[in-house]
């Protein structure tokens, strides 16, 4: 009986690190973005997102961005799933598929569809803060029946974890 009790206690102690490895319930990102739109537009701006993590590897994100160049304005608002590989204590790579809308204007504006497929790498500073070293997305847009496939967006910034 004594050996059995010691075995159960030791097994419980070895399981404690697995229980302690919790994931952030929500993440708030804000930072700089560089956007290349097909043809000759190279714009700079901001990117922000909020992700609700449903478990250790799956979450749902809302992503918003704005990019500007010489009076041209390009905004996106997209939503979708995020898959994160939280196997390391320090770094969290992730991928996402975001779908939503876009607004482009140069005086007058038009609305359209936008989709971003990509991912990035967050590096932990402490339990509540991480640095998003890179987020790279292939950005597809569709305005007035014309699909533009050769767009890219790269972001970096700060992630607050709750």
List the helices and strands and how they pair.
Layout: H1 2-20, E1 26-37, E2 41-53, E3 58-69, E4 72-84, E5 91-106, E6 108-124, E7 129-143, E8 146-161
Antiparallel strand pairs: 1-2, 1-8, 2-3, 3-4, 4-5, 5-6, 6-7, 7-8
Structural class: mainly beta
CATH fold field value: Porin
Run of helices and strands = HEEEEEEEE
Indicate the low-confidence ranges by residue numbers.
Answer: 15-20
Number of strands: 8
Count, helices: 1
Residues in helix, %: 10-25%
Residue fraction in strands: over 45%
* Mass-distribution shape: elongated
Q: What's the main sheet like?
A: 8 strands, antiparallel, barrel
How many distinct folded domains?
A: 1
Quickly give the CATH architecture.
Answer: Beta Barrel
What is the arithmetic mean of pLDDT?
91
Give the termini separation: 44 Å
Please give the CATH class: Mainly Beta
Q: In angstroms, what is the radius of gyration?
A: 20 Å
Q: Any overview of this molecule?
A:
This protein is mainly β and 162 residues long. The protein has one domain (23-161): Porin (Beta Barrel). The protein has one helix and eight strands. The chain has an eight-stranded antiparallel β-barrel with strand order 1-2-3-4-5-6-7-8. Strand 7 and strand 8 (146-161) form a beta hairpin. The radius of gyration is 20 Å and the shape is elongated. The protein starts with a helix and ends with a strand. Mean pLDDT is 91; it is low at 15-20.
């Amino acid at each position: 009986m004594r050996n059995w009790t010691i075995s159960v206690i030791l097994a419980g102690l070895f399981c404690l690190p697995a229980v302690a490895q919790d994931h952030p319930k929500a993440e708030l990102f804000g930072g700089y973005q560089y956007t290349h739109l097909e043809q000759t537009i190279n714009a700079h701006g901001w990117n922000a997102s909020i992700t609700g993590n449903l478990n250790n590897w799956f979450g749902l994100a809302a992503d918003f961005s704005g990019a500007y160049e010489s009076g041209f304005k390009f905004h996106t608002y997209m939503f979708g799933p995020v898959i994160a590989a939280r196997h390391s204590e320090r770094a969290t790579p992730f991928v996402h598929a975001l779908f939503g809308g876009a607004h482009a204007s140069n005086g007058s504006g038009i609305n359209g569809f936008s989709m971003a497929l990509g991912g990035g790498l967050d590096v932990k500073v402490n339990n509540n803060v991480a640095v998003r070293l890179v987020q790279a997305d292939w950005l597809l847009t569709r305005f007035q029946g014309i699909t533009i496939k050769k767009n890219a967006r790269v972001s970096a910034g700060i992630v607050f974890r709750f």
